[in-house]
TrEMBL record:
Domain UvrC family homology region profile: 75-301
Protein name, per record: Excinuclease ABC subunit C
PROSITE patterns listed in its UniProt record: UVR, UVRC
Domain of life: Bacteria
Pfam families from the UniProt entry: HHH_5, UVR, UvrC_RNaseH, UvrC_RNaseH_dom
SUPFAM superfamilies xrefs: C-terminal UvrC-binding domain of UvrB (SSF46600), RuvA domain 2-like (SSF47781)
UniProt domain UVR: residue ranges: 25-60
Keywords attached to this entry: DNA damage, DNA excision, DNA repair, Excision nuclease, SOS response
Organism: Shewanella glacialipiscicola
Glycoprotein is among the record's keywords: no
Length: 431
């Protein structure tokens, strides 16, 4: 685009190549020279830009280092959802992440993930083309039976030491968390892929024998802990997958703690309280729950849509035996007839996707509300403690429990807290 010279561009490519080859110190040294030269020429903006680059590169290099281990290892993160599995591999060489790659093995219906992972490890590490790069240690996120036998089989076939570890700590645990996160993100990306979602929508339309295409689906779920901080979620899918801009959460109040029926009634009522003919009406409304919750939601919809030409088709998604994916029972809200789909049905995977997304969104909202309540309610009741002082107390001492256990002398050290205020806080929190 002409915003940089060819010489500068070639220099950037050279430095990027060196850094990706692990020669980060060589890159940083080159940038330090450039920064000092720019400072001598009084080009301070350029010098500041080089300084920021150096700081960023050092941070990345520090994150890549394995503090106490300079050896080689492969780290495998596993994630499975809605018919898609991902094994994400991190290749650690000489204490750094040398590279990574995602694999998407096919998972037939009713197949145990243990069997899929076992087959993958055998095929991947017994491939003659990659034997020369196989490390002595592999860390995986998914434990399963016959792991020792698998370890011995690979070790014998390769005629070299080969160990598989699952329960790891420190640096290995950090790499494992990264691998699992990458695998999870990869699965979510595939699930959201337009072609995959479109195919699943078409199959769901065929199964439900709908005369018009599904343009909008919504799903409700309820989350709480022993009735505390109840939150309902409403997630929205269109033909391209999750439409997060229109997700909604509802803080549920004024009900008997733990009453999921009342919580569902309040959430659905608030969602369709002021619905109009031109409003955003879902073609299908999924309810994550059994017949009881479905009946509550169907009654509300019947009342709210009695004067409108269009109403959503309600479908309950009841968990199967042992809450295993693929065994869900689907229930039509208007007729209360139930049916099931094959575990490998793409239409069922679409339903599982919106159900799981609703569940995730509800749990996140519930945890945030619960944490906010536990962190602030006790301090808010103390006279003279406003948002600024409350924030200072929590940040300075590290949390509400630490504030409760602090002495008057420790409380006084918090900015903005006088000796009188410290005594008031101490007495209030100690009853």
């Amino acid at each position: 685009m002409g915003k940089v010279s060819h010489a500068d561009y070639d220099e950037q490519v050279k430095l990027a190549s060196l850094f990706l080859k692990g020669k980060d110190q060589q890159v940083i040294t080159a940038l330090v020279d450039k920064m000092e030269q720019a400072a001598e020429n009084q080009a301070y903006e350029h010098a500041a830009r080089f300084r920021d680059q150096i700081m960023a590169l050092r941070k990345v290099a520090e994150q890549q280092e394995v503090s106490n281990n300079k050896g080689d290892m492969d780290v495998i993160g596993v994630h499975y959802a809605s018919g898609i599995a991902c094994f994400h591999l991190l290749f650690i060489r000489e204490g750094k992440i040398f590279g990574s790659r995602s694999y998407y093995p096919s998972v037939p219906a009713q197949t145990d993930m243990d069997e899929v992972l076992r087959s993958f490890i055998l095929q991947f590490y017994l491939n003659v083309d990659i034997q020369r790069t196989i490390p002595k240690e592999v860390v995986i996120s998914h434990n399963f039976e016959e792991l020792p036998e698998l370890e011995v089989a690979v070790s014998t076939a390769l005629d070299k030491k080969f160990s598989i570890k699952t329960n790891v700590r420190a640096d290995r645990a950090s790499f494992l968390r990264l691998a699992v996160t990458n695998a999870t993100n990869a699965v979510m990306t595939r699930l959201s892929h337009k072609n995959t979602v479109e195919q699943r929508f078409v199959l769901l339309e065929e199964i439900l024998e709908l005369s018009a295409p599904i343009l909008r689906m919504e799903c409700f779920d309820i989350s709480h802990t022993m009735g505390e901080s109840t939150v309902a979620s409403c997630v929205v899918f269109n033909r391209e997958g999750p439409h997060k801009a229109e997700y909604r959460r509802y803080n549920i109040d004024g009900i008997t703690p733990g009453d999921d029926y009342a919580a569902m009634k309040q959430a659905v009522t608030r969602r369709f309280d002021k619905i109009e003919a031109g409003g955003k009406i879902p073609d299908i409304l999924f309810i994550d729950g059994g017949l009881g919750q479905l009946r509550i939601a169907q009654k509300i919809v019947d009342e709210k849509f009695v004067h409108l030409d269009k109403a959503p088709q309600l479908i309950g998604v009841a968990k199967g035996e042992g809450r295993k994916p693929g065994l869900e029972t689907l229930i039509f809200g208007d007729t209360e007839t139930s049916f099931s789909l094959e575990g490998d049905s793409p239409a069922l995977h679409l339903i599982q996707h919106i159900r799981d997304e609703s569940h995730r969104f509800a749990i996140a909202g519930h945890r945030n509300r619960r944490q906010k309540t536990r962190n602030t309610s006790t301090l808010e009741s103390i006279a003279g403690i406003g948002p600024k002082r409350r924030k200072a107390l929590l940040q300075h001492l590290g949390g509400l429990q630490e504030v409760k256990g602090a002495s008057v002398a420790e409380l006084v050290k918090v900015p903005g807290i006088s000796i009188e205020m410290a005594q008031t806080i101490h007495d209030a929190l100690r009853g």
